[in-house]
Amino acid sequence: xxxxxxxxxxxxxxxxxxxxxxxxxxxxxxxxxxxxxxxxxxxxxxxxxxxxxxxxxxxxxxxxxxxxxxxxxxxxxxxxxxxxxxxxxxxxxxxxxxxxxxxxxxxxxxxxxxxxxxxxxxxxxxxxxxxxxxxxxxxxxxxxxxxxxxxxxxxxxxxxxxxxxxxxxxxxxxxxxxxxxxxxxxxxxxxxxxxxxxxxxxxxxxxxxxxxxxxxxxxxxxxxxxxxxxxxxxxxxxxxxxxxxxxxxxxxxxxxxxxxxxxxxxxxxxxxxxxxxxxxxxxxxxxxxxxxxxxxxxxxxxxxxxxxxxxxxxxxxxxxxxxxxxxxxxxxxxxxxxxxxxxxxxxxxxxxxxxxxxxxxxxxxxxxxxxxxxxxxxxxxxxxxxxxxxxxxxxxxxxxxxxxxxxxxxxxxxxxxxxxxxxxxxxxxxxxxxxxxxxxxxxxxxxxxxx
Length: 451
Prior knowledge:
The protein is mainly alpha-helical and about 450 residues long. The chain is built from 18 helices and no strands.
């Protein structure tokens, strides 16, 4: 099965591009930040610089593992779903569930190894830029020498490989459990977006954890200044992951609500409604990065804006620890938001490219290319609305409790501009990327695409 995995990779390079990019970006980010741990262990590093560098390296390692697992799992799920006919054929000729799992894990392991090796060079540069940033803000002594060593390489390669393997096991589990007859049927019809009890339980656990942290922030951390960020900052991430895990079921509910009005909007609305009903699993893969982008971006940046206003109102100067927290918030948020944005583009391009045959069939049935593009644009608008709504719901457990704990007001008096900017970027990325990818896809003659 490992040999089959290698052949599958060789003949499906474009199909694995999304997963490879997720691993490559994840490894680059992980090694860039882990280099701060190597640097902290160098000679002549003062105590303050060492604390800052250690905090930067340690915090991102844990979040990096979680985010890489999430991103790779999302792209692999999309890839496996697009290969349902191939999986059905393997099962029908006698492949066992264990063999299918080994093939998918083998593919992921090869991609992870290649991604980690290629990520070393950009990670060396990224770590140096991060150290320069910390030095320019006075949080690390300018004389601290940059070191990219075994910790960076070890964390980057190990976490990337572990995350990719875990994501592959999660993805392969459902494909391997499906019987040959069920797999053949699934390959011919719409995807099944029904969530397993275990997946529902995972989503609920993340949401309950977010709720718990929100309550702790508003009660235990009230009056403790910027220390409340320790609990508030994590809340939006846990909530976003919980809602993203449950995204297929949420989209199914949304489809049931909007299908009727859409079908009364003519051919474009009818086709959009059918796609929402039949392909909720695929569409959920697009919604996930929108949720992460909106929730983490809005939650952390608005929280920092509340903190900055509170400090300005008090007339106090920020301590070195508070500067560290602010820099960490901006850097980590920028990293996560950029990662989510790239994954959104990556997933949209992969998902749209896989619809070449679907678009061709619709065109052969009489739809014009312009009508196909209208369907894609309308889908993008709906997915943006769903993703932004879920992302906003995930950001509020960070923003509202922190505002109350820090200022006494539940609704913050700042941050509206930040939130609107994040929503605008999410909308542009989702709609524009999907539209551009669809235009490129439909350039192929319909007869050729169907064949």
